[in-house]
Design brief:
Blueprint lengths: L30 E3 L2 E4 L16 E3 L3 E6 L2 E6 L6 H10 L24 E4 L35 E6 L2 H13 L7 E6 L3 E3 L4 E5 L6 H4 L6 H13 L18 H6 L3 H11 L5 E6 L3 E2 L1 H8 L8 E4 L1 E4 L2 E4 L5 E4 H10 L3 H6 L8 H11 L3 E4 L28 E2 L4 H13 L9 H9 L6 E3 L1 E2 L14 E4 L3 H10 L5 E5 L2 E5 L6 E2 L9 E4 L1 H10 L14
Helix pairs in contact: 2-11, 6-8
Length: 543
């Protein structure tokens, strides 16, 4: 099968059984696609109702999409001709047609671009082809360990990244945590093809009004990046670039807050027939099997959305790096009923530091309710996850997301996932600690920061410090404190941790080296006292 260019999927019963590639209809602005490979000169393809139609129609004026379980046809015929109306009638002849608000604003240029459309059926119709430029998968491409679940077909994963980091992160993320996902889209601050077109990155910002970008220093980096890519196809010189005025901030970070709400609009336009929309970053790890099991207990018609809750200036929001989950009902509210909401919020973002905060404010403004599900959705990596009396919540709760994983970290963790003996069981934080982390924890380690100096989750995991003349004195302070499970020593300061965290390597600075230690005897005694995880819950801090 020729898998070049960008493609969209159409699947289900064939209406037009013509063999071979469908051809472009010369002299008109529409075409019909069946099996094979086709090209278009304008427009955007959306997937038709899977139970009804395998062919897709594309014009400037026609879309067939599935919204909230209904097949919806919209036609605004402008000198295209009666032949288009005839085609639309054919496609929806057996479907119940319902009028919906106009969605064309989400599909207009620069979204209109040349697209290669491939529709492929095989193995009894079980194979699936997704948009090749974003990601594609089928049963034949996924590891045998991937769980089989009908709900997987109704989940779309959206990754927010930046052009200066995407090439280093996206391929590994696809091979590891996204290896079982059916529908995946990438959004960045630059339209790009990675690895020869294998991964297509949508530009999340290309529909922002020039009136917003002009005289806004946040967009200087965006404009410079686009120009460098156009002229040189190389933007490595911009890595680490600082904001023009806020010199302590990375320019890419300052630009990032403008993406979130635009991404919400655009992924709805790409995949409106999904029940669940998962939003993560390029360093977020999804435990796919746990996610499927959890989502089966939730209602996609609910107005609740799910995340790890934090608060900024009185706004309770779902932390973006931890990931957040929005059901179909709220996506429809935002992208359809509140059409153009991203443009509205572009005028308000100067009052917000971050895109995840602005998105939560927008969701709540229109009836969304944040259901905090920490530690199911967590901002910690396996190496920073606290385990112990300071954070008992982590023990028997399943892990659904983790944050701040490097590509090497993702490779290491997926290997652990694949080697689990009971892959059908929910993966709990307790299991991660005992089977993945515990053997990595020594008695002590030089040039290492075990994060004992950080207050951690809700201020309960560490941050208690005292003066000490040496690492040996610091170890003694920990031993004499029955609540101490780990310690770190730096700049004559001894920090005490109430839970155990592995941490990371850290080189010496002008104030000296970093040294860490763990009271493994105390940890073993505490672990022995803990009851088994006979009952695993998906509840979080709000439940």
């Amino acid at each position: 099968m020729n898998n070049t260019g960008r493609s969209m999927m159409g699947w289900g019963r064939h209406i037009n059984q013509r063999p071979g590639p469908c051809s472009f209809c010369s002299g008109t602005d529409h075409m019909i696609t069946c099996t094979g490979s086709v090209s278009t000169r304008s427009g955007f393809v959306t997937s038709a109702a899977s139970s009804m139609v395998t062919c897709a129609i594309m014009t400037h004026n026609i879309r067939v999409i599935e919204v909230l379980g209904e097949v919806v046809a919209e036609a605004v015929v402008e000198a295209v001709g009666e032949d288009v109306e005839e085609v639309v009638g054919e496609m929806v002849a057996e479907a119940e047609v319902e009028e919906i608000p106009d969605l064309k604003s989400h599909l207009r240029p620069p979204w209109d671009r040349s697209i290669d459309v491939i529709s492929w059926k095989g193995n009894g119709g079980e194979d699936v082809l997704e948009q090749a430029g974003s990601f594609y998968s089928s049963e034949s491409h996924k590891p045998e360990s991937c769980p089989h679940s009908a709900i997987a077909q109704k989940i779309v994963i959206t990754i927010k990244t930046g052009a200066t980091e995407a090439a280093a992160k996206i391929p590994t993320q696809v091979r590891t945590t996204l290896r079982c996902a059916e529908h995946v889209f990438f959004f960045s601050d630059l339209e790009q093809d990675l690895e020869g077109g294998k991964y297509y990155l949508h530009d999340a910002l290309d529909t922002i009004s020039p009136s917003i970008m002009d005289n806004n220093q946040d967009f200087e980096f965006y404009k410079k990046q686009r120009e460098l890519w156009r002229t040189q196809k190389n933007i490595t010189s911009l890595q680490g670039a600082k904001h023009p005025t806020a010199k302590s901030d990375l320019a890419a970070w300052s630009l990032d807050k403008w993406k979130n709400i635009h991404i919400l609009e655009k992924v709805w336009a790409l995949k409106p027939d999904m029940d669940w929309f998962i939003f993560i970053d390029a360093d977020t790890y999804l435990v796919w099997s746990n996610l499927l099991t959890w989502l089966e207990t939730l209602d996609p018609t609910s107005r609740s959305y799910y995340g790890s809750a934090s608060t900024w200036n009185g706004i309770r929001y779902a932390h973006g790096g931890s990931g957040y989950i929005i059901p179909k009902a709220m996506m429809y509210e935002m992208a359809v009923k509140q059409k153009g909401i991203a443009a509205v919020w572009d005028t308000k973002l100067h009052d917000h530091c971050c895109g995840d905060i602005a998105l939560s404010a927008a969701l709540q403004e229109h009836g969304g309710v944040l259901d905090g599900r920490w530690p199911l959705i967590s901002g910690e990596s396996p190496w920073s996850m606290p385990f112990g009396p300071g954070t008992p919540e982590y023990c028997c709760w399943p892990a659904t997301t983790m944050h701040h994983l490097t590509p090497a970290g993702m490779e290491e963790f997926v290997e652990y996932e694949e080697q689990r003996l009971n892959k059908s069981a929910l993966l709990t934080h307790n299991e991660i600690f005992e089977d993945f982390l515990l053997a990595k924890i020594p008695e002590s380690r030089s040039d290492w920061d075990n994060l004992a100096s950080e207050a951690g989750v809700f201020g309960r995991t560490g941050g208690v410090s005292s003066d000490a003349a040496s690492i040996e004195e610091c170890a003694k302070i920990c031993k004499e404190d029955e609540k101490c499970f780990q310690y770190s020593y730096h700049e004559k300061t001894c920090s005490i941790g109430r839970s155990v965290r592995l941490g990371h390597a850290r080189e010496a600075d002008e104030d000296g080296s970093w040294q860490s230690g763990w009271n493994k005897t105390r940890l073993a005694a505490w672990m022995k006292e803990q009851p088994p995880c006979d009952y695993v819950t998906f509840e979080g801090e709000d439940n």
